[in-house]
Amino acid sequence: MQMHSLAFDISHTLAGGLVLISFMMLYQDRLYSLLNVFAIHALVLALSVAWQAFIQDAPHLYITAAIALVFKALIIPVALHRIVKQLGIHRDIEAVVGVGPTMLAGMALVALSMVLMLRVTAEAGPLAREDLAFALSVVLLGLLVMVTRRNAVSQVVGFMSLENGLVLAATGAKGMPLVVEISVAFSILIAFIVIGIFLFRIRERFDSVDVSALDDFRGERR
Amino acid sequence: MSIAWFEPVAAVLLIPNVSAAVLAALPGYRLTARLNVVASLATFLAALSLFVVERPQPGPYVLVDDLNIVFIVLNTFVGFTTSIFSASYIAHELETGRLTPRYLRFYHAMYQIMMFGMNLAFVSNNIGLMWVAVEIATLTTVLMVGIYRTHAALEAAWKYFILGSVGIALALFGTILVYMAARPVVGEGRDAMVWTLLIQHAEDFDAPLLNVAFIFLLLGYGTKVGLAPLHAWLPDAHAEGPTPISAVLSGLLLNVALYALLRFKILLAANPAAIAPGPLMVTIGLVSVVFAAFMLYRRRDIKRMFAYSSIEHMGIIVFAFGMGGPLANFGGLLHMVMHSLSKSAIFYAVGHIAQIKGTQRISRIRGLTVTHPVLGWGLVTGVVAITGLPPLGIFMSEFLIVSSTFARAPLLAVALVFGLLLAFGALALRLTSVAFGRPRGSSASADASYVPMFAHLSLVLIAGIYLPAPLVTWFQHVARLLG
């Protein structure tokens, strides 16, 4: 219809795609497939950020897009693949809650974020509004992935998808400073803490990355 | 003139950074532990000089005002005394082989980076930078909590990492929302994240957006403050890490998150159309107090017990700031300072006690005042202080908070007093068995440093008896700032 609506539609589609892929994560019951879905998630995020960089004419956002593409869509999934293989945990994911309730909870969360964000951001531009609503959905779905899994690797994947939602929100907020720095900081966080130290140590000490195994060592048993 | 004002802030930030690099490179325990003390002392002195030299104009990244000077000085002071305690604590850990020299280097470097992160959070005038700084401080403590690499320590660090990251994520979302609210008014780009500019224009912001932002910030930073439904990481992190880290976690890191929360509270209060942040903070604070007070009764691990006590006290402080008004804010500020000092003093005592006895189980520690009179009575004084008995400082701050609440909302005050009494009962119960009675466990002599503990306790005692007039006027001024 109008000239600006193409830009609007494309960013809308990409952000909506992210929410959809977040939903796909909820029902993956194998670690490998979860990692593959996460790689797609990161890829769509990279496209979305690059598109924002293009329409906002903000070249520094291309850096964030490149980080998402190279680091999150390639390096991290490959590295996690290898870890999963080495640890021999490519069997089913132990979900705390079943798929049905999880999906219902996911829908409720998305509905919540739509109602909340569309109502409170009535004065902001339509692009920012819906971008924020989608971003909040991705954040909440990431949280849901984290609480419904007991496995350390899938919790990390949940955290990374949550963080993708944050990057989506930050890039949608036009002209926000420090976006690139924040995305770099997050990548470093993920790289160092998660892969380098925690999985290494947990593997070393427990021969299992099932977080529920850690519960046995609570400091306070009678 | 430009040099005269810039130096203290730069020093407070640079000294920890430089010393972190040096400490990571240097071998040898004796040298590095001392260097750590020297660096912390230098940072403290630099922070003190903030009082005398002229303040910088608030820039896009750095802000020094009456509020954050209190936090910075408290932070660097406890950082300094903890480094002294840490030196003697770590010596023992090296002897028993719980820490290797390589990990020690890492520990000292992380200690300084943590100080840097906390100081940066205090001086930052940019809400994005503040978020980054809180993140740095949190991550370094995650690494230090897991440094013993035992099962329990790894679990604690993992839990802390996961919950802390979720908190961090929610806080960032809140920060983005604040930016979105500010952008139409302040203008695009960096300015819309500068706190001093935000506060000037806060009344024109879109109120509903600001409300949602504050909810996210309260949940996000509230996770780090250790407020009740979001506190799950805190007891584990306190119990399983090295005790100096427990002391700075309770005494300092919780304050950093609280400070971030206060900044946003002021921002929200400046907008008449937005929801009042007070009732939210009062509720969450009160829930924390009562919940933690009940949980105190079931503790069997001494460090875990004092961790729950920290949740209780952070609840009291958030409650006080939520009540608002000059008197409650004054009480909240005083309580924050007193809690930092006495809780870290308690952890200094507990650290040495746990080393001597070789356990943190309360049931295996008995009769401390007989076997280790100095440590035992130090702990007794600390617990007397933390439970709010006169004449120590916490009695005064709690009295101020409760009496100002009574004047305005008697029912809330009753609930608060109920929580305080419950907590008092639990701590008194445990204290009598730990400090008195027939000695149990090793009675080996302690190779302890008593100076930090008694320095803190005497400050708390002095504050309880006599608050110097300049300090009172300063706090009154800050209390007015807080609205």
Number of strands of chain B: 0
Helix content of chain A: over 70%
Range of strand content of chain B = under 5%
Question: What portion of residues of chain B is helical?
Answer: over 70%
Q: Number of helix segments of chain B?
A: 19
Structural class of chain B: mainly alpha
Oligomer: heterodimer
Instruction: Give the integer mean of the pLDDT values of chain A.
Output: 79
Radius of gyration of chain A: 18 Å
- CA radius of gyration of chain B: 21 Å
Largest sheet of chain A: none
Helix and strand topology:
The complex is a heterodimer of chains A (222) and B (483).
Chain A: H1 4-26, H2 31-56, H3 61-87, H4 99-120, H5 126-148, H6 152-172, H7 179-206, H8 211-214
Helix pairs in contact in A: 1-2, 1-5, 1-6, 2-3, 2-6, 3-6, 3-7, 4-5, 5-6, 6-7
Chain B: H1 2-25, H2 29-52, H3 66-96, H4 101-123, H5 127-145, H6 151-186, H7 195-201, H8 207-225, H9 233-240, H10 243-269, H11 277-296, H12 302-323, H13 325-357, H14 368-371, H15 373-386, H16 393-408, H17 410-435, H18 451-465, H19 469-481
Helix pairs in contact in B: 1-2, 1-4, 2-3, 2-4, 3-4, 3-10, 3-13, 3-18, 4-5, 4-10, 5-6, 5-10, 6-8, 6-9, 8-10, 9-10, 9-12, 10-12, 10-13, 11-12, 11-17, 12-13, 12-17, 13-15, 13-16, 13-18, 13-19, 15-17, 15-18, 16-17, 16-18
